[in-house]
């Protein structure tokens, strides 16, 4: 380990190895796309190229955020919440009168991540569902605009739950100490969750493209098929069984359950955000990540897998 | 004009080297990071923005941020040569603000309704001067930020300017979201992703509206409205 730069030395070797494998996977993906371009020159690969390029940027930013220090990792996840909430609030109808309410909603992000930095579990778990939930309508009442009140209070709190509460579960996973008898702690669990969720997305997409016949939710997301869903779950299940001994305290059955939770949860998160976009009449949630769309397009699966995987792990080991 | 804290300059204000350095610092340390982190811009057809002067940028006006965002979109080497036109009654109302606007931001002050008070007053004199020096002028023809995210009728000054400098490209722009982030009267910015739509440039000397200021203004308004119709902005009522 002595050959490594100092900021990488505080990471467990398995975490480093996992980060390295992400980049190996990206090298492979880049080569495959290049090769496809050579073999089948007629194929339109512009979007796939953009996608892979964005994956490189995301993997690099994520790796640096994970490697430098715990504080930087928490700031990174808080920033992801901020970008997602900003994207959400820019997409949905809002009321002029609520500008100050939105300011308080943004302020809830540093507070939520501060509970996590303090490892104050009770506040982390009740702050958004209870205190933010109670405070937003109060602040709106003080402004006094009642037209559209229910819609404004409802949409704002739904967005807070999705972009702040759900996503902050990844950050709490990070600060978990190693479970009894386990070699590695939170950072490895975060990697396990994020890598499996993202690979599950890609696998569902590829299986859907290759074998997709039967649409799973035709009115919400016509591209989603049962073939894609099952293929994705299968890949995620296998990967979970392979990675769990290195990155988690799970036994074989627990690893299988985690794989199922991530495979199915990822699908649900994806279609829930699709339903939101369809309701608003938009295709992508933004333009932040070329080839992917916006930040919500990328973290949609995590909004389900993060809390589900967190509470599964917490129930078994903490 | 009694309310101005400093007299209206007779020549277009020409910031010195020190002011230019401050301008670059202000944009590098304050404006660009804020635009990148707090706002986040989605710019359509950035390639239509001018890379050299002279040029006139025309946009709808909702927020103080409009000027800063437009200036930050242009290439850095143009920054010292970008001149926003701004209301003297607001930006020259105190000495520090007047210094900051004219020296650091490079503002060209105009007196709103100045010709009614003094028929010899020429509100476009400074603009012509800087355009002839090859600089870029930013104009908000609505004349005021007005009610946020609602467009008012364009005033004719820009059409006069375009007619007098028929070869200078006039670039139409539409900005959305900045009026939600920091509307008139608000001190507290609230983050939103903002859209910038850049349109095809037109010149005052082009055939259909050559020597016809009304037709030029109508075409300009039409182009900005067409840019506005491209997006599907979320309701803000």
Oligomeric state as shown: heterodimer
Distance between the termini of chain A: 30 Å
Number of domains of chain B: 1
| Radius of gyration from the alpha-carbon trace of chain A, in angstroms | 20 Å
SSE sequence of chain B, one letter per element: HEEHEHHEHHEHEHEEH
Task: Compute the number of strand runs of chain B.
Answer: 8
- Name the chain pair with the biggest interface and residue counts per chain: A-B, 24 and 17 residues
How does the major sheet of chain B shape up? Answer: 8 strands, mixed
> Could you give the count of β-strands of chain A?
0
* Outline type of chain A: globular
Task: Kindly state the percentage of residues in helix of chain B.
Answer: 25-40%
Q: Compute the gyration radius of chain B: what is it?
A: 17 Å
- The sequence of SSEs of chain A as H and E is HHHHHHHHHHH
**Beta strand % of chain A:** under 5%
- Largest beta-sheet details of chain A: none
Helix content of chain A: over 70%
- Which secondary-structure class do the elements of chain B indicate? alpha/beta
CATH topology of chain B: Glycerol-3-phosphate (1)-acyltransferase
């Amino acid at each position: 380990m002595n050959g490594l730069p100092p900021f990488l030395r505080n990471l467990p070797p398995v975490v480093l190895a996992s980060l390295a494998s992400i980049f190996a996977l990206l090298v492979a993906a880049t080569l495959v796309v290049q090769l496809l371009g050579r073999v089948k020159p007629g194929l339109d690969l512009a979007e796939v190229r953009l996608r892979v390029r964005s994956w490189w940027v995301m993997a690099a930013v994520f790796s640096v955020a994970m490697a430098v220090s715990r504080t930087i990792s928490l700031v990174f996840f808080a920033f992801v919440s901020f970008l997602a909430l900003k994207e959400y609030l820019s997409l949905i109808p809002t009321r002029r009168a609520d500008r100050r309410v939105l300011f308080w909603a943004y302020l809830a992000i540093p507070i939520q991540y501060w509970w996590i930095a303090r490892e104050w579990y009770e506040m982390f778990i009740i702050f958004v569902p209870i205190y933010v939930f109670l405070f937003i309508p109060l602040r709106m009442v003080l402004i006094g605009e009642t037209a559209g009140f229910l819609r404004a209070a409802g949409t704002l709190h739904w967005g807070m739950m999705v972009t702040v509460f759900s996503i902050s579960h990844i950050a709490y996973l990070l600060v978990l100490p190693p479970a009894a008898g386990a070699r590695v702690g939170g950072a490895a669990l975060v990697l396990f969750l994020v890598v499996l969720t993202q690979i599950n997305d890609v696998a569902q997409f590829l299986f859907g493209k290759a074998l997709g016949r039967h649409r799973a939710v035709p009115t919400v997301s016509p591209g989603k098929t049962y073939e894609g869903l099952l293929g994705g779950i299968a890949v995620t299940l296998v990967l979970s069984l392979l990675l769990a001994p290195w990155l988690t305290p799970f036994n074989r059955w627990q690893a299988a359950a985690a794989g199922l939770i991530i495979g199915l949860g990822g699908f649900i998160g994806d279609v829930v955000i699709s339903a939101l976009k369809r309701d608003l009449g938009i295709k992508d949630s933004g333009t932040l990540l070329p080839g992917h769309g916006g930040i919500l397009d990328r973290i949609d699966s995590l909004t389900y897998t993060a809390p589900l995987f967190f509470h599964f792990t917490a129930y078994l080991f903490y | 004009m009694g309310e101005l804290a400093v007299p209206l300059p007779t020549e277009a204000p020409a910031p010195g080297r020190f002011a230019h350095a401050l301008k670059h610092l202000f944009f590098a340390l304050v404006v660009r990071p804020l635009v990148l982190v707090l706002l986040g811009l989605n710019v359509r057809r950035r390639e239509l923005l001018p890379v050299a002067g002279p040029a006139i940028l025309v946009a709808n006006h909702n927020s103080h941020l409009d000027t800063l965002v437009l200036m930050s979109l242009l290439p850095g080497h143009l920054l010292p040569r970008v001149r926003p036109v701004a209301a003297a009654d607001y930006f020259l109302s105190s000495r520090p603000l007047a210094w900051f606007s004219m020296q650091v931001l490079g503002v060209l002050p105009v007196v709103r309704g100045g010709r009614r008070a003094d028929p010899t007053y020429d509100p476009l004199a400074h603009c012509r001067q800087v355009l002839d020096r090859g600089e870029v002028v930013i104009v908000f023809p609505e004349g005021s930020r007005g009610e946020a995210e609602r467009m008012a009728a364009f005033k004719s000054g820009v059409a006069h300017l375009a007619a007098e400098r028929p070869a200078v490209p006039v670039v139409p722009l539409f900005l959305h979201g900045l009026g939600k982030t920091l509307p008139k009267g608000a001190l507290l910015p609230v983050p939103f992703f903002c859209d910038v739509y850049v349109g095809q440039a037109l010149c005052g000397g082009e055939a259909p509206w050559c020597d016809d200021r009304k037709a030029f203004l109508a075409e300009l308004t039409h182009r900005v409205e067409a840019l506005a119709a491209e997006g599907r902005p979320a309701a803000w009522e």
